[in-house]
Amino acid sequence: MDDELAEARGENTGRKREFHSRSSALDTLKGLDLNGKTYAITGTTSGIGIETARALALKGAHVVMFNRNIVESEKLKKRIEEEKSDVKIDFISCDLNSLQSAKAAADEFLSKHWPLHGLILNAGVFAPTAKFTFDNFESHFGVNHLAQFLLVKELLPALRQSSPSRIVFVSSVSSSHTGLKAEMTRHEKVKKLCPENANEFYYKLYAYSKMCQVLTAFKIHRDEYVSHGISTYAIHPGTMIGTGRSSSHPILLNYLFSDISRGFGFFGKFWNVISKPFTKSLAQGAATSVYCIAHPDVTELSGKFWESCWDDEKSLDADVARDISLQDELWEHSECLIDEWFKSQKPISTIGSDDSINSPAADTSSEENA
């Protein structure tokens, strides 16, 4: 039993650690050829998503970027093409503030009949100015969990068909700060994790959404690893990553500014500047995502929490995250919310019908770049 616990916590001394906190995304891919692999990534127009897409594309993978901002997606593609002219990059419009947009993005991907060897759920918001999504879900929960939960569910068939395949949830050690108590019932815990309002402190709301990601990752591991060959990883990219820090390549200078703390305005930018010497660069922050999605050494290390390219669970609230019944209840609750949302959607009437004037198409615009 002690051996099993040690392995779950990433204390398997039989493995040699090759990469560390200062390893870059490209360091983890050294010597690998990713030609023939297709990876989809959410949120690549800012922060570590940029370096994640860049590293995979430069190593020959077909990268599909799920972004709201298509203009910035085009700019990133051109910058990467300046490094390697034959990169394979596509993008699909996806605003995670809208479940309709997330569903349409998944449908568009599936319509292309591309394989899907890996999905990285990288997008996220932290203290956004908009407290609720377009569908009236609390923003951290709606963007960081529910919309990407929908995306995963819709894309599971493609991942199964491309098996062995992988899913990386970019979570955070903040997931351990939910404050959930052992004496709480599962229903009470789910109610906390899926808030109906934005009354709590923004950091607590963020922590809830990040624990939702970890619980979902471990649930998918249980359901998909043995039966369909899908490996799943929940990762912490790094504490207070210097999101304004320059890339390891000069071509991306002045381009790498994350929007995750944009709700803080000037203070957020000021903090990025003074914290740079003590934090990871974007290339280092992207290393764990890239390592888990592509490196052959971790294929069989599914269902774990990763930090700095190692399955290190010292900062994981395992009592919550490893609760199988809580994983199942969160999954069921998330499905119910999405089902209710689908039922509430009125079909867009055809031109000439009696109620066409009163049935406008849904507006999927949002000020948050998720």
From TrEMBL:
Membrane-spanning intervals of the chain: none
Ranges annotated as biased composition (Polar residues): 348-364
Positions with biased composition (Basic and acidic residues): 1-16
Gene Ontology molecular function, alphabetical: oxidoreductase activity
Stretch list, region Disordered: 1-22, 348-370
Keyword set, alphabetical order: Oxidoreductase
Pfam families: adh_short
Protein family membership: Belongs to the short-chain dehydrogenases/reductases (SDR) family.
Name this polypeptide is given: Uncharacterized protein
Organism whose genome encodes this protein: Caenorhabditis remanei (Caenorhabditis vulgaris)
Taxon lineage: Eukaryota, Metazoa, Ecdysozoa, Nematoda, Chromadorea
